[in-house]
Amino acid sequence: MDVHRRRAKITGVGAYVPPFVLTNKDLEQMVDTSDEWITTRTGIKERRIMTQPNTASSDLGAEAVKQLLHKTQTDPNEIDLVICATATPDMLFPDTANVIRDKVGIRSGFGFEISAACSGFLYALETGAKFVESGLKKVIVVGADKMSSIVDYTDRTTCILFGDAAGAVLLEPSDDDTGIIDSVLESDGMGRNYLYQKGGGSYHPATHETVENREHFIYQEGRTVFKFAVNGMVQSIKKLMQRHHLSKDDIQWVVPHQANMRIIQSISNMFEFPLERIMVNIHKYGNTTTATIPLCLWEWENQLKKGDALILTAFGGGFTWGSIYLRWSYDPPATEQASPPDVE
Ligand code: ACO
To answer: Are residues 195 and 163 in the same domain?
Structure first.
């Protein structure tokens, strides 16, 4: 590793979850399922849904970014770049990052979107870090997903999994040995056959038929995805640990994508990471796709200390997967917030 390389560090975290709670009990009224099945198979008890009309992923993202700017006392016009990871863009174009920039009032710099499903936040974080390493001073990385806009609430195999949320981090140059140290990011397009939203793109533009065939919703072969997810996350963590000669005791926190408690448990077992050092909030929010990792960082911000070693890991549609190794850059902020705010 080049020790003289300029490094990017996370200097703040913001998040937003909508106030409406959809519980497993509610889902029992909608599809043939049970609280018991959902809890034992996934670990999810409830998820948040954006119910306000005429809102989109950008509204979730804008709330998270506004909070981030407020908490870090950052002037919107100091921002050089906003990268938005999302699987539920407001529209195919223009990109959601620029809609967020407009809603927040960021007029400086530029923005763009990254599409890598549930690994989107990690891909965006690594991309943002590279921009900081090459000279930019303030980069926002936001994961925002209104998953309820593409969930088929008649399909019990997927509708129990997903929720709506956004999370954002500020990246700035690091002047010490903390910050984003290394990443392993991988993908395999073969996976497109197992997890997709077929309709609405150039392959199957929207028609009456695509609507009738429910092609505008998520389709997933859960069992296959499960196996690849465990393997992808485990292998990428292993590569990082080997590369940096890390043992499980060198890592203070593991921040896994929240797709299934059984996947998180497998990672815990595989590396003998105690569950107390793995961030888990899947029971409250379900799988919020690109928002899960920043939402965890947000919730645990008050427990993170400067110098803590973190491994972030994710797997998603594509297939895409990977892990990031970083050292946390600040002690808990003075003003504490116990959980993500329920704005409005
Ligand atoms: N309630 C009751 N029964 C159900 C439900 C439900 N909600 N959903 C499925 N079942 C039934 C199935 O029909 C099946 O019945 P059968 O045996 O009679 O055929 C049985 O339960 C078992 O189904 P499986 O699909 O094998 O269940 P599994 O234990 O694999 O759990 C799940 C499904 C939760 C989806 C799991 O496979 C999983 O988490 N997969 C990985 C998800 C993931 O990591 N995705 C990547 C990120 S998402 C993204 O990128 C957008």
So the answer is: no
CA dihedral 260, 336, 343, 143 (to 10 degrees): -40
Q: Measured in angstroms, how far is the CA atom of residue 16 from the centroid of ligand 1?
A: 27
The reply to whether the predicted model has a pTM over 0.90 is: yes
Q: Is the distance from CB of 126 to CB of 256 less than 8 angstroms?
A: no
Q: How far is Cα 242 from Cα 278, in angstroms, rounded to an integer?
A: 20
157: Cβ below 6 Å to ligand 1?
yes
Looking at residue 150, what DSSP letter applies? S
- pLDDT digit string, tens, across residues 80-113: 999 999 999 999 999 999 999 999 999 999 999 9
Q: Which of 257, 260, 281, 296 is catalytic?
A: 257
How far, in Å, from the CA of 15 to the mean position of ligand 1? 28
Kindly report, residue by residue over 322-339, the tens digit of the pLDDT: 999 999 999 998 765 545
Inter-CA distances, 69 with 75, 133, 281, 314, 331, Å:
7, 21, 24, 26, 18
Instruction: Please check whether residue 237 is in contact with residue 323, taking contact to mean a CB–CB distance below 8 angstroms.
Output: yes
Helix (H, G, I), strand (E, B) or coil at 227: helix
- Protein residue closest via CA to atom 48 of ligand 1: 316
Q: CA separation (Å) from 269 to 116, 260, 264?
A: 27, 14, 9
**Rounded to whole angstroms, how far apart are CA atoms 47 and 23?**
7
Closest-CA residue to 44 (of 292, 284, 275): 284
- The phi and psi torsions of 126 (rounded to 5 degrees) equal -65, -40
Count of C-beta atoms within a 10 Å radius of residue 30: 13
Is the domain of 110 the same as that of 58?
A: yes
Total Cβ atoms within 10 A of residue 295: 30
Distance, in Å, from the CA atom of 114 to the CA atom of 212, rounded to the nearest integer, reads 29
The answer to whether position 276 is within a domain reads yes
Q: Could you tell me if 72 and 207 lie in one domain?
A: no
Q: What is d(CA 212, CA 197) in angstroms, rounded to the nearest whole number?
A: 14
